[in-house]
What we know:
A seven-stranded mixed beta sheet has the order 1-2-5-6-7-8-9. The longest helix has 20 residues, at 369-388. Helix 5 packs parallel to helix 7 (228-239), helix 6 runs antiparallel to helix 7 and helix 8 packs across helix 12 (369-388). The chain is elongated, with a radius of gyration of 24 Å. It has helices spanning 57-63, 80-83, 86-92, 102-112, 179-194, 198-208, 228-239, 256-270, 285-294, 311-323, 342-347, 369-388; strands spanning 4-7, 10-17, 22-23, 27-28, 33-41, 46-49, 72-74, 97-100, 119-121, 127-129, 134-139, 149-153, 158-162, 215-218, 243-250, 274-279, 295-301, 304-305, 308-309, 329-336, 356-357, 361-364. It is of the alpha/beta class. It contains twelve helices and 22 strands. The protein binds MU-OXO-diiron. Residues 77, 79, 81-82, 144, 163, 219-220 line the site of MU-OXO-diiron.
Amino acid sequence: MHKQQIKEKIYWLGAVDWDRRLFDSLIPLPDGTTYNVYLVQGSEKTALLDTVDPPMADKLMAQLADIPKIDYVISHHAEQDHSGTIPRVLSQFPNAKVVAAPKAKGMLINLLKIPENAFVTVEDGQTLSLGDKTLKFIHTPWVHWPETMGTYLEEDHILFSCDFFGSHIAASDLFVRDQGRVYEAAKRYFAEIMMPFRNIIEKNMEKLKAYDIRMIAPSHGQIHDRPAWIMDAYRDWVTGTPHNLVVLPFVSMHGSTRQMVDHLTSALVEKGVRVELFNLPVTDIGKLAMSLVDAATVVVGTPTVLASPHPLAAYATFLANALRPKVKFLSIIGSYGWGGKTVETLAGMIPNLKVEVLEPVLCKGLPLGTDFEALDRLAIAISQKHRENGLI
Ligand code: FEO
């Protein structure tokens, strides 16, 4: 797309990546993404805020072809999807200075070999005048990396938030127009990128209360010209009470574990507990991450393979541990052939989760009556825990 005006002397540039389906060789992108770049032209100086992922560099450079000068390249975040084209921008605008947080400077030198004398570092709360427009830098560590910052454009009340409040969604809309679709994409993005840093994000949200933010322009996805709902959503995801929800990622090799999963699901639903199943061999891992934002309980369903949990169950457990959701209770169910250490192995993989582990249910081969009774007891225990915590 061509560059588009957002407000007087403020423009969107960048690239819509309709085709990308994986980020960081890990995160599914079912809706593609965008790399948003913003140009702010003050009466005296011009600033470019971030760049694009290097495969999209030609698009940005074409958009910049008729821009006579850039004085500052603001680098909010050193990850290459935003910083990777800074070297090309500097080669076209050799007098431009890279403005970054002190931590970002070292990372940009390390990752992109930008010369040290190209930098101006800015502290938290520092301002930079472009003449009739003033940029105020707000350090927002861990949204997404420790060096990340945002910029508040004082005269126009716009927060350029980088990954914060972003969403991986390719669209021709400049502004959020399909709020339901963006809500889902933003929640997916929060789950995959932000959830591990919930506590620090809460502090960053507090920090933003000091600003009269009338527009949020993130570095991925559409611009929030009515930003209240996305800030409310973040508050809920970060600090809201977990829901009356069991997330049940599972894998079954010959159907025994599947029978247990189905039985437990029915028993939980009978007791008023919502359940979301994720059959791991065919699961979009981003959907699982989104459900973990809300879940009060996780139950992992796995057969025993080579004396251990199935590798897909181990992967899901590793992921849940890394994402640090608000989950309060956890259990394990599954079938084994002749023995193993499935429970011990999985229990050892969740040091980050502050959970109460509820009695696991493992059965030998196909589940029998006593195994189903044990699953009924687990369903009762989960529903009681949810009730005691005011979730039902
Ligand atoms: Fe969009 Fe953390 O980079």
